[in-house]
Structure formats: structure tokens, C-alpha cells
Amino acid sequence: MMRVPRLFRSVVVAVVALMFGGAVAAQETRTLYRATLLQAAPGRLLELIEFCKSKAELDVRAGDQPALWMRHSQGDHWDLLLLFPMESYSDYYQPGRILVREEADRAARRLTTWMPLVAWREDVFVYGPPLDDLRKAFATGTFYHVEMMQALPGRLAELRKEREMENVYQKELKRPENFIFVRDLGAAVDIFTIGVYRDLKHYAESVDIPVKLQEEAAKKAGFESASAIGPFLRTLIRTHHDTLAVAIK
């Protein structure tokens, strides 16, 4: 297998780090995930959730990590978002693991031959944060804010930097930082972020933060002001989809 694409991505990361400082390099990770978005067939959402639970058991038997997942509450049209940890392409597609996974997939197909549960599906392979950090947040969080974006041509590095600036802003306000996922292959989503909160009340607490503190945090993060964050983001993106989601227990 050729190593050029991976080497090329490493060079790009290094260039971005030189352009935007140490924050990018410090937050860059090499953990690979497959994000799967599912829209249930009409009236079949609960059945789809039960199927995904059964499929998770088959994945574990195949030696794969169980997916982290959530259910749409408000926003975009998908019903379920599943994050499948892959570690890396070379780890995930080892010949032995492929054979075991094919057996599990055949079992999954047998489960669904009589129930067409999915009306729409989209997959994207992304690099994101360390799995341990993600699992720790999901273990205590029950409410999620998901933002999916396409960058304008030539603005992807700036969009990535903007996402990290917003994390500085969040950290200054003692708010949860967003987990950043960057597209490698698949659907037309360049970057998506997931903010994990204890519940809806925790998510809404930002409205009670004094304006003075917001302004100080925004300037420390590199923005002109707190009110300039949204307009600045929109100079970098072609599309932007927000979704509020809840944990599935």
C-alpha cells in the first residue's frame, strides 16, 4: 500500500501549524472514525434503534469498537448519528479483521432482510480526537450540539483554525470545548464538531454569562468581539447545519 497520501496529510498539517501557530499542532490527532448518518423509514425509528443495538453486539464480536451514537432532537434531517472508531485504515482493514467483520456483516444483513428500516444514509471518514477523551465525555453527557460545515474553496485551514479559536473562547468561559472532526473521505462535510453537555439546561447556561466576560473571552481567542464570532464563521463556509441531539440509553 502506498504511503504517499498519509505523508501528504502530515505535510499539510505541518504547514497549517506554521501558518496558525502551535494550537493546531497541539490539537491534531490521528484517530480515524466513520461517521454514519441515518434517517429512518417512516414510522420505523424505534426499530432502527433496536437494530443498531443488535448490530453493536455483532461489531464487538468482530473485534471492532462499539459506536458512539446519538438521536436527533432538533435541526437537520437525520435521525441517528453513529461514530465508529477505526483507529487507522491499516488497523481497521487488516485481513484477519476483514474476514471476521464480513461474518458479522452477513449476520446483520440477515437481521434486516425483512425490515427496510433506513430511508437515507450518508457516511464520512474523519480524523478526530482521541477515543478515550470522546468516550469519557459521552459517558457523562446526555445532550449534544452538532455543527456540520462545508468550507468555501481554499478556506478549510482557516475554518479549522476558527473552530479551535471557538474552543479557546469556550474554555475561557468554562464551557465544554467542541470535539473537532475533519473529513478525509466520503460525504460532502469538511468539518463537523460535537459539543457534549450534561443536559439541555447545561447547554443553555451560556445565556447567563455576563457580556463583559464574553467580550474578554472572545478577544483572548482572537475574535474582534463576541458578536463577531458568527459573522466571521460565515465568511469561511458554504453550508452550515446545526443539530441538537440526545443520548440513547
Explain what this protein looks like in three dimensions:
This protein has an eight-stranded antiparallel barrel. It is α+β, with helices and mostly antiparallel strands and 249 residues long. The longest helix is centred in the middle third of the chain and has 18 residues, at 95-112. Helix content is 44%, strand content 29%. The radius of gyration is 19 Å and the shape is globular. It contains ten helices and eight strands. α3 packs antiparallel against α5 (95-112) and α7 packs across α9. It has helices at 4-20, 22-27, 45-61, 89-92, 95-112, 131-140, 156-172, 200-204, 211-221, 229-233; strands at residues 31-40, 68-75, 80-87, 118-128, 143-151, 179-186, 191-197, 237-247. The model is unreliable at 1-27 (pLDDT under 50).
Secondary-structure topology with pairs:
Layout: H1 4-20, H2 22-27, E1 31-40, H3 45-61, E2 68-75, E3 80-87, H4 89-92, H5 95-112, E4 118-128, H6 131-140, E5 143-151, H7 156-172, E6 179-186, E7 191-197, H8 200-204, H9 211-221, H10 229-233, E8 237-247
Helix pairs in contact: 3-5, 7-9
Distinctive features:
single chain; 10 helices; 249 residues; alpha+beta; eight-stranded antiparallel beta barrel
